[in-house]
Amino acid sequence: MLLSVLIPAYNEINSIDTLLEKIQAVPINKEIIIVDDGSTDGTRERLKTFDAVPNIRVIFHDHNQGKGAAIRTAIQHMTGDIAIVQDADLEYEPQDYMALVKPIADGKEKVVYGSRFLNPENRHSYYSFYIGGQVVTLLTNALFNQRLTDEPTCYKVFDADFLRSIPLECTRFEFCPEVTAKVAKRGIRIKELPISYYPRSIAEGKKISWLDGIEAIWVLLKYRVMK
User: Fold this and answer.
1) Where is the Glycosyltransferase 2-like domain (predicted)?
2) What does DSSP assign to residue 92?
3) Residue 167 · residue 75 · CB < 8 Å
4) For each of the chain's 227 residues, which pLDDT tens digit applies?
5) Model's pTM, two decimal places?
6) CB neighbours (10 Å) of residue 51?
7) Cα dist from 10 to 41, 67, 77, whole Å
């Protein structure tokens, strides 16, 4: 089994080295697909130095297109059996990969999400982000007959062939609601497992905003009525 780690990266010079060290330390057969989405802070130049690492592949967007566009590019280049989305910051713990991929590797699930809310030891980000995430999750459950606790989580894990079969259109943070809606419309009940979470502040580089929450609601409603 080969795990494809899909990393959209934009201006993450302060975290990219540590993140890659953490991922490489996970005892699982993996390829790391990094898409630099037009970084301007030195991330782009730093990533060019990883060309010689056998299991790392870096793709460069000429200009910033958004997280969703970077993930779509990464999907085009992955060769693994299972795929996981990994943000380029340090909010999530790569050691959680082992538990998250197991239900898919065992053939029991097609999709697994890592839930920050199933781990009572986690602290959470800004209150507005917490409330926004809960609203998006509740709406997802109501519209798509799911039982999720954390729809906007970064750690979304897929059978790779299944992920390739989903026609994604996202460019920005709407990747999460779009892929969730399209998975649910295939009749799949998404499995959740607890993960660790270490939220960072806006000053530390957090990029999502309340406007992305509004967009997520719109995307969920749109794909509920679209065939």
Assistant:
1) 4-157
2) B
3) no
4) 999 999 999 999 999 999 999 999 999 999 999 999 999 999 999 999 998 999 999 999 999 999 999 999 999 999 999 999 999 999 999 999 999 999 999 999 999 999 999 999 998 777 777 888 899 999 999 999 999 999 999 999 999 999 999 999 999 889 999 999 999 999 999 999 999 999 866 555 556 665 777 899 999 999 998 76
5) 0.93
6) 9
7) 9, 8, 18
